[in-house]
Design goal:
It is built from 17 helices and ten strands. It has 491 residues and is α/β, with parallel strands linked by helices.
Length: 491
Amino acid sequence: MLALSHLAYFSVVILLVTLVPKSALGEISYATNTIFIMGFLGTWRYSWAAINFTRAVIFRRIVHPKRKRAARKRFAKRAGKSHMYMLVTSYMVEPHVTLPVYRSVFRAASRARDGATIVASVVDGADERLIRQIYETQVEDMTGVQLIIDRIEANGKRDALAQTLRILGSHSPTHRDILVFVDGDTMVPEDIWIESAPVFTNLKVGALTTDEDVEVGRESLFKDWFVLRFNQRQVMMCSMGLSKHVLTLTGRMSVFRADLATRPDFIEGINHDFLDHWRLGRVKFLTGDDKSTWYWLLKNGYEMHYLPDVRSVSYEFQPRPTFLDSSKTLMVRWFGNMIRTNGRALRLSPTLIGGFTWWSIFDQRISMWTTLVGPITVALAALMVSPSVIPLYIAWVMITRYVFCVIIALFRGTWFPVTHPPILYFSQVVGAALKTFVLFRMDKQKWTRQGSGSGAALVALRDKIKATESAAHHVLALVWLTIAILYFTKV
């Protein structure tokens, strides 16, 4: 069945090419500048992808195993204990998810050689009772595991993290101890202590993150989209891991050096992070706590490593009835967090964070615009030269994205459904459009599970003015991009 679907995919490609009459090819040949621009940008983007893939292979096959062996040798020689602290935040998580998640947390804690302390931050009393019951009925030996449940008000994840970190700080963790941040919907790998603790024998390391897998449930476009995203993530994280500076410390599960994560300025950076925007004023960060922790470590010169052979598993649920609405909702939140942080990260010196890391952050800013050049250019060529360019462009997209998916699948070691190539193009183009949207609306933030908007129900006049200004700036930027394409292509 899988082979037949892929055969049908290439049949569509052939059909699209044959739809273009020979007479139309002469018309299309007049759009030489259009073809050149598309080819130039394509070569640039594909070269960047090839660089990242090559770096990922080098890291995964050569560099990471060497680093792992060296870290374990240092760990074996080091005196002193390495206690594991775990911070778990749960909000509006279903009991059928809480059960396997906390079982995995307690299982991992019981395997920590030097003991573990878990602080569970919960809002609901039912969650507290369920967590205690799981702890008391755990089959592993829990004598070295301490459970603390912090019952809090529903003031947002940042406030919960700050309060929990202060509790952990009262235990006076040392530089030998590790602190695992875990979302209440993410299962922790049981070997997280033995895989993480040796890494922190290098005092330059401030944190690390790991590979991710996903549990979605029924087969759907939403599931295929998430699987593809995590497959792409593995490639990019391995590439960035070579530079010892990943581009995000995933909020689902990341590990920090405990004495750093309990410092007052680190906690303040989570609880009261903000940026001052020339037009929007002071924008307080509501979402994106993982970007705040990442930026704090980045600006303070700490390395952030990646473990490609350790994997957490998160439960994901489609937040909206349709795939389009669900993916848009999630991408607006993710990309908003990224854009609110990478502007200030760009102002850091490349000598501090590394030249490749700095360029990768810069690429996040420009790729949103270069990705839109292709669709806009083809639309203009279809209007002004010949509509026959559209089926050729679709065929080209189908072939190139299929090749990308083959490369990603080979790296991951699993094959892919035929939905992945079109989903990849959707993520690139719609994702780029949404990035430009949030670039001009950095004050708009909302969690998936809770309403954390930026104002009251009645929107103040100044907020309406800001919204109008944001729309005007966004439209103007897209107009200038279109004018630039018209100038260079002269279609």
